[in-house]
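Dear U.,

Please find below the material for section 3 of the report. The protein was modelled together with zinc ion; I have listed the sequence and SMILES used, followed by the predicted complex structure.
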Amino acid sequence: MTGQDGTPTGERLAPVFQYCHWCRGFASDVRPVAASDAGSGPRQQSYSACPSHRAQHGLTPLGEQ
Ligand SMILES: [Zn+2]
């Protein structure tokens, strides 16, 4: 018998889950956005945000303009 219960194989992330810089973690439906608040940054850096944080900060996903 090969019953391996209780062994979570959570090393595989679904492709729909990507890193949200505002969540500081992985979220679903994350899209790259342009963060214009680059104070001392080198240039306009691209971040990724989930839908809730995009609506919260008024971020526009890249490629939707
Ligand atoms: Zn988020």
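For the text of the report, you could mention the following: Residues 17-57 form one domain.

Regards,
Y.
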